[in-house]
Specification:
There is one protein chain. By secondary structure, the chain is α/β, with parallel strands linked by helices. It is 34% helix and 11% strand. It has 6 helices and 4 strands; from the N terminus they run αββαβαβααα. A two-stranded parallel ribbon has the order 1-2. Strands 3-4 form a two-stranded parallel sheet. Strand 3 (69-74), helix 3 (90-107) and strand 4 form a beta-alpha-beta unit. The protein is globular and about 55 Å long.
């Protein structure tokens, strides 16, 4: 719900970073550092108006042609949040997530998602909002078949057209290689305990 002030200030002088914040105008902080694109909205804004503004803003974000997107998926625009002052429903926040992830997929841009905010009066509501974000991101789950019912295996699908800095494609073989490196006592003594009981294979 509040302005992305820290991110805007950190990257204020960095032309290689585009920052976008859609936030409640009359909320923390009083001073809002200028970002690349800032949209301050009125108190108690509801689903339709909020989502319309978001749809209109996303083309400008992707016109920057980002190499990667960092998406801060806050739960505090929720209508029953105790610190936020917007009025989105859980379904409205789910649609927000769909819009962001769909735009990233359409542009072929990888996205890093972080959860944020969430001070609903009912803890179950905050959990539901965050869960919906994971579902929109297509993170493996029992519901979508990515996690086995016994919880002992996870299937990850690699995004298409992801490449290393030298242009070579990122493949499942790279994932297996990194797992082998992390569990090799000769190369990863610090992390070996974490990976000892994990098996990674390409399917």
């Amino acid at each position: 719900a509040h302005h992305g002030n820290g991110t805007a200030m950190i990257f204020d002088q960095d032309p290689s970073v585009f920052t976008f914040s859609i936030h409640q105008q009359h909320n923390y902080p009083a001073f809002k550092p200028r970002g690349s694109l800032d949209i301050g909205v009125e108190n108690r804004l509801q689903n339709v108006q909020y989502l319309t503004k978001l749809r209109q803003a996303l083309p400008a974000v992707f016109a920057f042609k980002p190499d990667i997107v960092f998406y801060l998926a806050g739960a505090d625009p929720y209508e029953d949040d105790q610190l936020g002052g917007l009025a989105l429903t859980i379904e409205g926040l789910r649609e927000r997530d769909r819009l962001v992830f769909s735009a990233c997929r359409a542009a072929g841009v990888p996205v890093v998602m972080t959860l944020a905010g969430g001070y609903a009066r009912r803890l179950e509501d905050t959990v539901a909002i965050h869960r919906a974000t994971f579902e929109a991101a297509e993170v493996p789950s029992v519901q979508n078949g990515g996690v086995a019912k016994d919880g002992k295996s996870v299937t990850w699908k690699l995004k298409k057209n992801v490449a290393w800095h030298d242009g070579k494609p990122f493949t499942a073989d790279d994932v297996v290689f990194n797992w082998e490196y992390a569990r090799d006592p000769a190369t990863a003594t610090v992390t070996i305990a974490t990976h000892r009981d994990i098996t990674v294979e390409k399917i």
